[in-house]
Amino acid sequence: MEWLKNNWFQARSGDVKSRRRLLILAVAMVVAIALLVSGQSSSQPISIAVHKTGHVVSSSSGYVHLTGAVKSPGVYPITAGMRLFEVIALAGGFTLKADRASVNLARTVNDGEQIIVSGSSASPVTDGLIHLNKASASDLDKLPGIGPTLAQRIIDWRAANGGYRSVDDLRKVGGIGEKLFAGIRKLVSV
Fold first, then answer.
1. CA torsion 128→131→132→133, rounded to 10°?
2. CATH class of the domain at 60-122
């Protein structure tokens, strides 16, 4: 603690980055001490990750890649049970062009997942076709036989698999059988 105090006073006259690092380190130490005091047994390891935004994430259980229409796209540490809205908050929130309906903010995120937030400036519908890698849930809901639940499954599959490489990938989405696929295949593109 004495080391932190001495370095803080040296950094006060120094650059902003040094002070910011020391502040983040101090916050991490306070969180670690709070966890110990609140009943964390000494036999359980404490893991604390501090993201570049300054948010402290304890006991990281993995990472997700957040990309698209968010202020700071990148790889973020997650904890078990973390929701998408929490990861988007770590990324500084949506951009002004974000299509907020293109993601389910209440869903839990998984380790190793890539999440793409669509931008509303890129038109998902051109030439009468709905583009699977850009469409929002409301765009997909306009397809015959696709309701809100299935539209969200299409978006979740896109996010979990890095997008659609061909229209035939729709067959891999749960709930889309051969009959439904035959009815929408000429209405969509990638």
1. -170
2. alpha beta
